[in-house]
Amino acid sequence: MNSRPYTVMLIVPTGIGAAIGGYAGDALPVAKAMAQVADRLITHPNVMNGASLYWSLPNALYVEGYGLDQFAAGSWGLRPVHQNRVGLVLDQGIEPELRLRHLQVADAARATLGLTVTDYVVTDAPLGVELRTAESGATWGTIQNPGSLLRAVEKLITQAKAEAVAIVARFPDDPGTEALMQYRHGQGVDPLAGAEAVISHLIVRTFQIPCAHAPALSPLPIDPTLSPRSAAEELGYTFLPCVLVGLSRAPQFVTSRESMPSTGAIWANEVDALVIPASACGGSAVLSLSQTSTQIITVQENQTSLNVPAEALGIETIAVHSYLEALGVLVAHRAGLNPASLRSQIANLQECIAASPKANFLQEIR
After folding, report:
1. What does the alpha-carbon distance between residue 198 and residue 165 come to, in Å, rounded to a whole number?
2. Does an H or E element contain 215, and which?
3. Of the listed ranges 182-186, 210-214, 305-309, 359-363, the one predicted with least confidence
4. What's the predicted TM-score (pTM) here?
5. Residue 167 CB-half CA count within 13 A
């Protein structure tokens, strides 16, 4: 029996057009499978959020991207909780009818799912979300009034005693654009994801509190050729349900080992394995965990708009073709087996020959 829980981190970066995980919660089946292999699965909203669809995994920790980076760096710990009081921020720029739709979702989450949602706050000015696309094809964005968002969140924390925050910002409607058409047909890059990450990063960095975002958009016309990977976002008027569910049990951040030594928090040195798309190895969490004993597994099949392989960064990984193969590697790793021992051909042991001081010197200067 293992002396401690087997812990896996699953990352599919946001806004880079991942073939699996770049759409409406389409990496959730991967998370569900990995949760069967691991005692603890650490992942993030981009993996778990499927708009009106969601799936609660008791052993999964739902961690916003900036918090995930801080955790992987060893700066923050994750303290599991039974329940959070979730506060709701609504952008003043949301039209009255669309605002009511979101409030009805929050009421439904309270009545049907039993979630604890605090009173809501409307920002004192429209947030003014703007969308951008980088040369790589990855998406990002800005907000014109970040101070308004920060004031709203502070009010929820101080007055409503919110322990996690869901944010709904009015995003620009872009019906008929090539990017949106490709996304709805399971191609290209999610045009909203990068800006969503900017919003949640700001809140987590400022308040060290769990946070996730749901965009407010006008309903789109029905498309009979819609991709199954994008279909979850077409089922209702809001993307808020999955965010409220995820935040209801999102772990709290522990920002100092010394100040809270007995919280039962999870720290980066307890992560046994990290699974990441093979072309997206340049993220902060990957770079941090590459300096530890964490086994990194790269998935070739999950192609992205990036071209940052592990080899270019000098990161040692186990490269696999698919998430099905990654699951096999995790099973072997958990059992303490070298995955190579499960193959039909095993190479002979080779003698370890020490390099000469001159060879070491030449290696260092190359």
Report:
1. 15
2. strand 211-216
3. 359-363
4. 0.91
5. 35
